[in-house]
Amino acid sequence: MLEVTARATARTGLEVRPLQVTGLVHGRRRLGAELGYTSGAERGPLLIASSFRAWHRSDRRTPIADVSHIDWGEPAVFLSPGARMTHPQAR
Questions:
Q1: pLDDT higher than threshold 60 for residue 45
Q2: Confidence (pTM)
Q3: 57-91 b/e with 16+ CB inside 10 Å = b?
Q4: Rounded to whole angstroms, how far apart are CA atoms 69 and 88?
Q5: Could you tell me which of 91, 80, 89, 81 has the C-alpha nearest to residue 25?
Q6: Which helix (H) or strand (E) holds 7?
Q7: Which of 3, 37, 62, 91 could potentially form a cystine with 32 if both were Cys, beta carbons 3.0 to 4.6 Å apart?
């Protein structure tokens, strides 16, 4: 698992709480994720952005409803049959 996506369920002033998990980003390579380059609008200079885009081309975002089980000891994420997976940068 590279990233957990969430949305705020309530806002109180400057604090946002609690968060509801909406999905998981998973893939085989962690380097870009550890440096913050898997998703989002800020991807850095063109050379770095294109390198990490190629490095993470097999990453997928899966809605949390399509996750059947997470084994934290392994670690492994098990998806439901027919899980909807998209590339993290797909719109």
A1: yes
A2: 0.64
A3: eebbbbbeeebeeeeeeeeebebeeeeeeebbeee
A4: 21
A5: 89
A6: strand 3-8
A7: 37
